[in-house]
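Lecture 7, part B: from sequences to assemblies.

Below are the input chains for today's worked example.
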Amino acid sequence: MRVLAERRLGDFRLSVAFAGPEDGATILFGPSGAGKSATLAVVAGLAQAERALVAIGDRVLTDTATGRCVPPERRRIGIVHQDARLFPHMSVARNLTYGQRRAGGRDRIAAEAVVDVLAIRSLLDRAPRDLSGGERQRVALGRAMLSQPDLLLLDEPLSALDAARRGEVMTFVLALKRRFALPMLYVTHSVEEARTLGDHCVLLDAGQVTAQGTPADLLPAPTRLGEVVAPGVVLIAGQRIAVPGLDAPVGTALRLEK
Amino acid sequence: MLLTPEEGQALLLSLRIAGWATFWGMIAATGFAWLLARHRFPGRVLLDALLHAPLILPPVVIGFVLLMLFGAQGPIGQWLDAHWGVRLAFTPAGAALAAGVSAFPLMLRAVRQAIEAVDPRLEEAARSLGAGPWDRAVTIVLPLALPGLVAGGVIGFAAALGEFGAVITFAANIPGETQTLPLAIYSALQVPGEEGAALRLSLLSFAAALAGLLLSEVLLRHGRRRAGR
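Predicted structure of the full complex, as structure tokens:
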């Protein structure tokens, strides 16, 4: 996967170039306003750039030098956002197969396998409004996978979930990655997510790539600060401290995150 | 309430004319609503105003404009007659045209609001899943806009059913041809001692509009259940 994007958005100047492994997860890491979303829009074909090159394997999707720009519906890029964007007038099953039915007969990723890996068999007949946040994200992941994408684009897919659900959904993302060997581009500002999933990491700041490498090298493990030992009670440096309004479950580790 | 043959005829004719006016009006309204809701182009505001003109013009002026355009001497009327052998002025089809044009802005507004209310992010999701523009329109936007489309159809139907000025100007008042319920009521009122007939016809048009409203309510509930709201 190769990405180059130069875009001007008002005062903001985006100028990024990076390459990621063809099977494995590339993390796009940076604070909000670093240019992650602007980069994603170029990769997805939803935004024009003054200069851009997007290629997955030998498929060139955008190349401003030759004027090539494949429209989003033919890019074969599955996208999962923080809000699941499930179609409210369709059952879970019909949501799942929406992209599959439009994949032109490509069927490397089988519906049965995806349903099993994501453990959503019992949800198939339900309506999206009857699902929990975590379940919705799992269905959105399945729907994107079944569109038989060449690249799975994940735009902060866990950030709308609470801490407990985040770990759960991450487990499923990892399971998909292991089972289907598919390049992923994963946008996040969480060190933990980057270190758990990433094979390659691209650090973005103020529209520029500041470093590339393995997540372990670029992003030091968060320092462990303490732990939740009872509802609303935290143990830090041997002291029990009451934290009113803290709803993290018992056992949650507290870390310093930048 | 048993109907006389004349009343039955006027009722059926009214329903047929209002039905066709709504059918073609909704197709045009959906097309234009899409254009106005989803596209930016030069002259958009002007087109918007022009499409709303029937709402502010006196109905008799609508009928007169239609006569000038679609009448036997009008440019479109002559073309239709020469190429298709179709005459609109003073025919049931013409009555439907006049009623449909008068009711058009109401349908346009309802459909446009319904289309604008569909979350564009859902369409974007469908797009990334391989759905082209028509595919997205048919599988995402129109089903989600369905309650609004039904509402637009009902209000259009009610307005077309009640249209008087444009119909009588463009299609005249021919019993069995273009004499819809409002026109029949008007004719009855012209004859001394026919107030009873006028009252019966008025109740009839009230019942027809009410039936349409109830039907739409049923359709709407069904649609809401499907849309998950």
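Note for the exam: Chain B touches chain A through 21 residues (CB under 8 Å). Keep this in mind when comparing with the next example.
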